[in-house]
Amino acid sequence: MAGVNLEVRSEKEAALCERLHTGKHSQADVVALRKLLRECPHLSRAADVCAVAFRDAVGYVGGDNALFAELAEDRRRVLRTELGYAEALPVEKLLIDEIILCWLRHYDAERRYTEAQAGRSTMEHCTYWEKKVAATQRRYLRAVETFARVGKLLRSVSMQVNIAEKQVNVAGKQGE
Amino acid sequence: MAWETRNGRAYYYRKRRIGRRIVSEYVGGGSVGQLAAEMDALAQAQRQERRAREQAERQKQQELDAELEEARAAVQAAVAATLQAAGFHRHKGQWRRRNGRS
After folding, report:
1. Which residue pairs from A18-21 have beta carbons closer than 8 angstroms and sit at least 24 positions apart in sequence?
2. ipTM value
3. Which one of A30, A142, A176, B95 has the fewest beta carbons within 10 angstroms of its own beta carbon?
4. What's the pLDDT tens digit per position in A26-60?
5. Mutate to test the interface with A, among B63, B68, B84 (most CBs of A within 10 A)
6. CA distance between the termini of chain A
7. A11 in contact with chain B, both atoms CB, cutoff 8 A
């Protein structure tokens, strides 16, 4: 779980996370963490692999640039809104996050390819980035296609979804 | 490496590859040769540094790709579980509704 940063609310929780991060924790700490995650479901979201991968990618692309980090976060919010994150099914939310992650990787690859071409990079490096741009583009398109396909399939059937122990019946029409 | 001794004096030569042949190109002796040798050494060091930097960049990309692949696999597993629960099955890589089931 390296790279996971929980949004803690108190010093006690911060100390607990620090012990768990560094491996200096007891069994009681693990039990306390489970209780914390149950009480605050938003914390468990931080452990989502997509969120972790997004944070790492933003850190790598922007480095210590706080402006880039904020712009990336803003772009993420805009993309989520455009793709209907608020009304999406849980599995669709995961797919939207995957699309955003793929978008960031593609954006980074395009930028580095342009830099490699403009700068004094080796031919090997330019070729590497050319292939990388093609690969990230394919991955991005595949993520978008999967999102569209899964949404269409799930909306074509009546579904019962349990959210926070409440039963929600999602009835869709064929071809919607 | 590119210093050659002719008649007891040292001269600096640059080596170039033309196809399968290595061609020796005369630069000069004394201080001219020394300056050219130092400039060549500096250029070589810069090339090595650039290669090392590019190598490190590609290595970091591999790590990020592995992380992205892990995320993708987790999402795909969730998608597959959801679709199966909704009554779909996979046929030749394509998700299809089971016959006679709503």
Report:
1. none
2. 0.71
3. A176
4. 878 777 777 776 665 544 554 467 778 888 888 88
5. B68
6. 39
7. no
